[in-house]
Amino acid sequence: MKFDHIGFIVKNGKKVTDFFDAMLGKADWKINDYTFTQDCMIVGNAFVIRTYNAIIGGDLLEIIEPLEGDDSYFMQCVENSVGGMHHLAYAFTDNDTCDEKVEELKAKGYVVIHASERVKGHKTYYLSLPEGSPAIELKV
Question: Which residues contact 21 (CB under 8 A, 6 or more apart)?
């Protein structure tokens, strides 16, 4: 397991990237739209997001802007708060090791709040404590 990125969920990704650029200097943002159909969802509902990714200060920042999926996890995040820092992400080299870590955290009281496998063999889980905490993303 290795640290991968810091994730933010926001209503307007362009405004947030403009803010980071103004504060920290112009970054090379990579912008992509992703569709998660219900077929690839393990926990949660289908959605579409736009991501903005850039290396800032040596670390990868991921800005997630929900575009579609009113009852999706990501849309609920921005509707129920002002958005902001959401998760720390850790990457694994294989699904078995990732799944083992998910089970270990669940045994410690963490709850899987969102999970998908958009690309076969590349699972992504978001976990949080029931009383609320920044999420942890575990991915392959």
Answer: 27
CATH topology of domain 2-139: 2,3-Dihydroxybiphenyl 1,2-Dioxygenase; domain 1 (3.10.180)
DSSP state of 11: S
- pTM of the full structure: 0.90
Hey, is 3 helix, strand or coil?
Answer: strand
Q: Where are the domains of the chain?
A: 2-139
The closest of 82, 87, 79, 98 to 61, measured between CA atoms, is: 87
Q: 114-133 pLDDT, tens per residue? A: 999 988 889 999 999 988 77
**Per the structure block, which two tokens stand in for 90?**
């850790």
What residue spans of 1-127 are helical by DSSP H?
A: 13-24, 73-79, 95-107
Name which of 106, 102, 49, 39 is nearest 72 in CA terms. Answer: 49
